[in-house]
C-alpha cells in the first residue's frame, strides 16, 4: 500500500481526471519549486474509477479559471493546520479572457493583436465557447490549452 503523508499547510488538488495530473503539474510549474509536492496518479476512486491528486506543501495562487477549463470536476482543498479550511469545487467558467484563442482568421483578434480574446460558455455539456467578436464556436480540449 502506498502512503502519502498529510500536509500541514497548503493545497490539495483532488478529483483530477486520470492522466491530467501531470498536465496540471507542468502548467503550475511545480517542478521548479523548492517546497514539497506530491503528484499521485491513477488512484482508485469510487466516483471516477481512477483519478490523480496533487498535494502542495505551500499556499500558492491558482487560476481556478484555467483549472476549470482543464477539468471542471476538480476539487481544491485549502489546508491549514492539517485541516480543510476551504473547499472549492470547480466548473467550466462562463467567461474566459486571454486564455483561449479564436481560430477564425477574419476575427478582429487576428488582425488587432492587442485585442483580448474573450469567449462565453454556450454549451456546458459539450464544453463549447463562442467568441465575443465573431461568434466562432470553439470546443475546449485540454490539448488545445497547451498549444499557446
UniProtKB/TrEMBL annotation:
Highest taxon, organism lineage: Bacteria
Record has Metal-binding as a keyword: yes
The protein's name: Aspartate carbamoyltransferase regulatory subunit
PANTHER family reported in the protein's UniProt record: ASPARTATE CARBAMOYLTRANSFERASE REGULATORY CHAIN
Lineage: Bacteria, Bacillati, Bacillota, Clostridia, Eubacteriales
Organism from which the protein derives: Clostridium malenominatum
Pfam family, one: PyrI
Aspartate carbamoyltransferase regulatory subunit N-terminal domain sequence ranges: 2-90
InterPro entries linked to this entry: Asp_carbamoyltransf_reg_N (IPR020545), Asp_carbamoylTrfase_reg (IPR002801), Asp_carbamoyltrfase_reg_C (IPR020542), Asp_carbatrfase_reg_C_sf (IPR036792), Asp_carbatrfase_reg_N_sf (IPR036793)
Keyword set, alphabetical order: Metal-binding, Pyrimidine biosynthesis, Zinc
Residue ranges of every copy of the Aspartate carbamoyltransferase regulatory subunit C-terminal domain listed in the record: 95-139
Amino acid at each position: 500500500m502506498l502512503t502519502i503523508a498529510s500536509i500541514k499547510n497548503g493545497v490539495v488538488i483532488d478529483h483530477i481526471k486520470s492522466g491530467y495530473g501531470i498536465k496540471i503539474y507542468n502548467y503550475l510549474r511545480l517542478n521548479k519549486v523548492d517546497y514539497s509536492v506530491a503528484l499521485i496518479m491513477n488512484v482508485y476512486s469510487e466516483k471516477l474509477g481512477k483519478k490523480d491528486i496533487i498535494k502542495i506543501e505551500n499556499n500558492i495562487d491558482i487560476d481556478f479559471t484555467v483549472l476549470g477549463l482543464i477539468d471542471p470536476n476538480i476539487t481544491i482543498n485549502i489546508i491549514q493546520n492539517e485541516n480543510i479550511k476551504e473547499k472549492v469545487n470547480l466548473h467550466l467558467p462562463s467567461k474566459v479572457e486571454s486564455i483561449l484563442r479564436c481560430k477564425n482568421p477574419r476575427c478582429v483578434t487576428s488582425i488587432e493583436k492587442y485585442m483580448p480574446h474573450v469567449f462565453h460558455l454556450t454549451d456546458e455539456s459539450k464544453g463549447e465557447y463562442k467568441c465575443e467578436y465573431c461568434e466562432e464556436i470553439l470546443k475546449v480540449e485540454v490539448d488545445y490549452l497547451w498549444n499557446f
